[in-house]
Write a structure and sequence with these properties.
oxidoreductase activity; globular; 10 helices; 8-stranded parallel β-sheet; two-stranded antiparallel ribbon; alpha/beta
Length: 280
């Protein structure tokens, strides 16, 4: 049972990762970004997820430095994730991209580094680079994002190290049962991006009924569903009251029947690109 914001899941290499974090996708550099990450740290979040393509690693850096100071915590208490972008997938170029992200974040290491998208013919070389960084102790954990079962099977044919994480679009309209079952079987931790489906579920009647029962918001019900499904979640918000609200999901528990009702909302509907059909 996950009790609070600092509770962790243990990845297959023994590294502990918080179940709950904040994402900063599409939050531009500037005070809004810095304040959002600082609010999150202040209110107990310890996991922050960014990526090279978000072009906000420098702002995240500022927020981390100020947030650590104000909260009186150590860098080691935070779990920082970034991702290598498609144009940098290749052995040397992935290592160079890691260096660039580290420099922008002004950190000595990352807790987790991911391949952002499974670009055909490129992700294996990139994975080799991640394995090198990992073996050298320069990153605590490595993983992938947006990988389908066949991508993972293909990667693992040649990989020395199995990915620790697969971060995918995951919400009640896209329950990803096949990839979830595969990752569970392989000991790969599933992580949700866009858990709230960019706000598209916030008027759903089934979710509203469940939310009313617990005196919670629909967002809180969805995030609770993530956790009870054993999925790490990183909702994005820049508003302090929402950052607090999103994380207030440890004081209630959905029943088996409610979990099932939410699972049944699945329509295999994506709000983001299809990992089998993207061109960037």
């Amino acid at each position: 049972m996950i009790k609070n914001l600092q509770d962790t899941t243990t990845l297959h290499n023994g590294v502990k990762m918080p179940w709950f974090g904040i994402g900063v996708f599409k939050v531009e550099e500037g005070p809004e970004l810095v304040n959002a990450v600082k609010f999150a740290i202040k209110h107990g979040y310890r996991s922050i997820d960014t990526a090279a393509i978000y072009e906000n690693e420098e702002g995240v850096c500022q927020a981390i430095q100020e947030g650590i100071k104000e909260a009186g915590i150590f860098r080691e208490e935070l779990f920082i994730t970034s991702k290598v972008w498609n144009s940098d997938l290749g052995y040397e170029s992935t290592i160079a991209a890691y260096e660039t992200s580290l420099k922008k974040l002004d950190l000595e290491y990352l807790d987790l580094y991911l391949i952002h998208w499974p670009v055909e013919g490129k992700y294996k070389e990139a994975w080799r680079a991640l394995e090198t960084l990992y073996k050298e102790g320069r990153v605590k954990a490595i993983g992938v994002s947006n990988f389908q079962v066949h991508h993972l099977e293909d990667l693992m044919k040649d990989a020395e190290i199995k990915p620790m994480i697969n971060q995918v679009e995951y919400h009640p309209r896209l329950t990803q049962e096949e990839i979830q079952a595969f990752c569970q079987q392989q000991g790969i931790q599933l992580e949700a991006w866009s858990p709230l489906m960019q706000g598209q579920l916030l008027d759903n009647l089934v979710l509203q009924e469940i939310a009313n029962k617990y005196n919670k918001t629909i967002a809180q019900v969805i995030l609770r569903w993530d956790l009870q499904n054993g999925v790490v979640t990183i909702p994005k918000s820049t508003k302090e009251h929402r950052i607090i609200e999103n994380s207030t999901v440890f004081d209630f528990e959905l029943t088996k029947e409610e979990m099932q009702r939410i699972n049944e909302l699945n329509q295999n509907h994506r709000v983001g690109p299809d990992p089998d059909n993207f061109d960037f």
